[in-house]
Description:
By secondary structure, the protein is α+β, with helices and mostly antiparallel strands.
Amino acid sequence: MTSHRMKKIAWLAAGALAGGALTLSVQAFAGKEPTTLPLNELRTFAEVFGRIKQDYVDPVDDKKLITEAIKGMLSGLDPHSDYMDADAFKELREGTQGEFGGLGIEIGAEDGLVKVVSPIEDTPAQKAGIKSGDLIIKIDDTPVRGLSLNDAVKRMRGKPGSKVTLTIARKSETKPLVFAITRAIIKTKSVKSKLLEPGYGYVRITQFQEHTTENLAEAIASMTKQNKQPLKGLVLDLRDDPGGLLTSAVGVSAAFLPKDALVVYTEGRTADAKMKLTASAQNYGRPGMPDPLSVLPQETHKVPLVVLVNGGSASASEIVAGALQDHKRAVLVGTQTFGKGSVQSILPLGSAGGIKLTTARYFTPSGRSIQAKGIVPDVVVEDATVTAADQALRVREADLENHLANPNGDEVPSKAAKPTKPATPPVIKQEAPKPQDDKNASPENPREPNPKQDYQLSQGLNILKVQQILIKQGN
């Protein structure tokens, strides 16, 4: 893959991040065929523009009118296309390194409202008590209804140390909740790892960032060294991972798949939007840099693998889960994923900023579209800490207004209470008991890997141990 083509690999994520890590895909308009403008509709636009300028109760700046028209044109397409002014475009560039200013909330749009998909770990939002499914009513004194995602993000960002007040509606509460949160420089830890017990490792990916692939390789190498021998099994935790760089999703998949195995392919209207990405360094490495998986222990390609997913696993997370499931490389455990199967390209507009435009749908190696459906795990295990009310608040792609249709006609109904089950492979429903008390559990970090507190993790670990027994019996 050439460097020019690498620039066209788009960022995938469940929604906009409030001070979040976004990454760029650059596509130029040069060489594209000219588009014929609809003159009658443009006359109507000009007439409305003139009426506003002449008759609106207050004078309106031309730039504001044009900017709002552009925003409306994009936001009306789907939940993920949007316009970014110069400041927002600059902030997006700064987010590619996994360090940014803000609160640390991943948000999505629905019916003119802003919902929290998930708070990012170890950030002011998570520590303040913001939860997945919360509805943001006001940012300081500004009502959120009608704001675009970019506008909401812009208002929640600010100078580190400054405060912002969020008014939240939560279904389990009768009155709105008010959170005064201090902004901070958010340094997200893309990869976290731990040796759960001798022979069994755990890796959690919080977001797919620029250095995620190499950080994953280093984490597995470190655990292998700590274990003093190859791992017997590995848990890859993608729960509540909203996505990120497509290249990193390919790299993470390549860590476990045979060389040149198909990871994902995309289909769109233009030649640029049609890609087949395989487990090859040219598809996930940075130009001029060594293969980020070069430090990965060779045994990793064959180590028994369990992948944890849930309704917050979106986009790049779903690419990894789908590829590993299609190649029968891992057992997926958890609940149905978010269902974002579209590709967004970031198109610069010079000094005017840029647009985030949906340009393609992606498909798993077997040809499945995840759009508005998601990935159904091989073993369905409910989170024991999630109540029925929490499940009702969970936002998925199929719930978002103007979401793209699934091209295979395989879309789940909006607000589905339970994950649907495909005919194959069979899905086993597990009933989750209440988590056990553990003095080592951290209330501020509920994702600290602890099988005694985390029923989904404990079931994943049990599956690995059963696989190890079967391997020994086979020998």
